[in-house]
Amino acid sequence: MNWAGVRPMEEVTSELSERKKGINKGAWTAEEDRKLAGVIEMHGPKRWKTLAAKAGCVYDQNVDRVLTISAGLDRCGKSCRLRWMNYLRPDIKRGNISDQEEDLILRLHKLLGNRWSLIAGRLPGRTDNEIKNYWNSHLSKKIKRRAKQFGGETTRGGSLKVQSRKGGGEAKAEVKEEETSKASDEESNINFDFDDFFDFSDENPKYLEWLSRFIDVNDAVCQF
DNA sequence: AAAGAGTCCAACCGCGACCAG
DNA sequence: CCTGGTCGCGGTTGGACTCTT
């Protein structure tokens, strides 16, 4: 292989981003998916802006050189990240939310409010977007129906709200007594009730075993 | 069969936090 | 300390699909 005239990755990256004036929007095509998956396979799911520019390049990491350049992804880094996180990731679980998962979502939402990423973190293979959509399309209605049915009585304990921490790094749920998450307030006639949340007395053992894979119940109780 | 209403979900947007220079 | 780039989050939107009339 003759490397003469083959340019370093950094040079190509900056040229590609220069070239890109129009950013593509809307639904992703199979070709875009393939390009994005390819470039993530090589570089890992990070530096999304750079990845978007690199997609379309055939890159040999052994020699840090670009072998060929085809049309890249006219997508912003944000869009690439979202596509990967919500659709392309290999560990994504497809299919319907099970009853057990639904129950866990309900419990976690009571505890955390609209902290979808935290909730998703307890449900392997499920994305925050998926859970958020599921909540908005199924569960919120279900709860409203139930509340109507039982005359709005949804709580018997004190309320606990979770500070919303938008953006940045790993999620740290800071539990605070006074906080206002606009969205959680909306549903939050549903106040958190420790007794209720951790009351597994009527659960069958099989479910508890499943649940314990995602929540260390003892740990959780101790934290409060 | 057609039109309107309702539902679902992928994708976009705006914002705030983090971090390197 | 400040600033710009980047990332991740929750809210919202819009189009495709399904259901109802």
3D structure, described in words:
Residues 20-88, 89-143 form the HTH myb-type domain. Keywords: DNA-binding, Nucleus. Residues 167-185 have a biased composition (Basic and acidic residues). It is found in: Nucleus. InterPro entries: Homeodomain-like_sf, Myb_dom, Myb_TF_plants, SANT/Myb. The protein is mainly alpha-helical and 224 residues long. It folds into two domains: 9-88, Arc Repressor Mutant, subunit A (Orthogonal Bundle), CATH 1.10.10.60; 99-223, Homeodomain-like (Arc Repressor Mutant, subunit A), CATH 1.10.10. The chain is 50% helix and 6% strand. The protein is built from eleven helices and four strands; from the N terminus they run αααββααααββαααα. Strands 1-2 form a two-stranded antiparallel sheet. Strands 3-4 form a two-stranded antiparallel sheet. A hairpin with a 4-residue loop joins strand 1 and strand 2. The radius of gyration is 23 Å and the shape is elongated. It starts with 8 loop residues before the first helix and ends with a helix. Mean pLDDT is 64; it is low at 1-21, 59-71, 152-192 and 217-224. The chain binds a DNA duplex (21 and 21 nucleotides) through helix 4 and helix 7.
Q: Which structural class best describes the helix and strand composition?
A: mainly alpha
Strand content: 5-15%
Write down the overall geometry. Answer: elongated
Q: Give a count of the beta strands, DSSP E runs of length 2 or more.
A: 4
Main sheet makeup: 2 strands, antiparallel
Q: What is the CATH C level class of the largest domain, in words?
A: Mainly Alpha
The CATH architecture of the largest domain would be Orthogonal Bundle
Strand order of the largest sheet: 1-2
Number of domains: 2
Q: Report mean pLDDT, rounded to a whole number.
A: 64
Number of helices: 11
The topology string of helices and strands comes to HHHEEHHHHEEHHHH
Helix content: 40-55%
The parts where pLDDT drops under 50 for at least 5 residues are: 1-21, 59-71, 152-192, 217-224
The CATH superfamily of the largest domain turns out to be Homeodomain-like
Radius of gyration: 23 Å
Under CATH, the topology of the largest domain is which? Arc Repressor Mutant, subunit A
How far the N terminus sits from the C terminus, by CA atoms, comes to 63 Å
